[in-house]
């Protein structure tokens, strides 16, 4: 479990996160939702140690993440940021192999090659593994980066708006893959997502931010209520059910 306790972050006089406390359950998909500028991406970056906090603490499996070595931390948690542009031209396989660095320190062994093969196969990239990233579609490229995270073999996977610039089919494909990783492989996934219906359909748990604070958090079915959604987004929504699934309607 990841526990965030009284975490705050400011840039100059601008408050980004204000006394955030929340726990992220293990083996579930947790969606971070809320309007632009509420601190979702910053919270994800602090949890992944890419950004320093000003106050508070974050514990992973009861250990302060800022007391872990880089290698120890990278074996426990991986992150995919919004923008990923390698400075060199890489094939899919070369990119994915970077995910083994915490384990191999750049000296790939047979077990590392096996893990790479398994990750490529899981993400349906084996046949195009020698293609260059700049030759790929947006969906293929995102699957390649996700394969790099998988081969890192961490229990915790953080994704910052991974559906950006993807069409509907590829977005659904990514979310189904994440659901499989949580349900069948026990991965703990924290994802920043803007489309509320993806959160409703695939997340087990929702953390909603507003005004740089946690407004609501809990199981998805407890958060997806019309009043709470209006509180979160300042937008009237209707909730409908179809085949035991809920959908949020905000076009009127």
Task: Describe this entry's structure for a reader.
The mean pLDDT is 92. 35% of the residues lie in helices and 28% in strands. With 252 residues, it is an alpha/beta fold. The protein has a six-stranded mixed sheet, sandwiched between helices. Helix 5 runs antiparallel to helix 6. The protein folds into two domains: 155 residues, Rossmann fold, CATH 3.40.50.300; 70 residues, no CATH class. The longest helix is centred in the C-terminal third of the chain and has 18 residues.
What is the CATH architecture annotation of the largest domain? 3-Layer(aba) Sandwich
Q: What is the gyration radius calculated from CA atoms?
A: 18 Å
Poorly predicted regions: none
Task: Write down the CATH topology of the largest domain.
Answer: Rossmann fold
N-to-C span: 40 Å
Q: In which order are the strands of the major sheet placed?
A: 6-7-8-3-9-10
How much helical structure, as a percent, in the residues? Answer: 25-40%
The number of distinct structural domains comes to 2
Strand content: 25-35%
